[in-house]
Specification:
130 residues; 7 helices; 0% strand; Serine Threonine Protein Phosphatase 5, Tetratricopeptide repeat; mainly alpha; single chain
Amino acid sequence: MTWQELKDSLRSGNKVENILTFAFQIFKKRGLLGKAEGCINQLKVLGEEPKSRVWAVMAQSYCAGKEMEKAVKALEKAIKSVSRKWVPDPTLLSSCHDYLRERGEEKAVEDMLAFRKSRLSSAVSMVKDP
């Protein structure tokens, strides 16, 4: 997908989050984080903000590349832009949690644990009450 095709999809009202998530997963698999970061910057220029799933893919990519500071920041953005149904990958959450704990950032660790608890209870209630 070219950048022009992405912009056209954005303007036509297609599911931008799905397109971006798909594109970012391809970038991740091919090790093209620079392109993914460029897309995010271009989206911001267009006045759009990536949703939680896009940020989560970025966080997973950073985590896989051992860029934990960037992974934590991307996960925080995912959490801030969270949709009701999104639940973070437990392995990603655990890796970021461990990184923050090692750095002594207890407030961030507490916030992450509180978020995890709230998302898990939301996921359980969605299963009970679809």
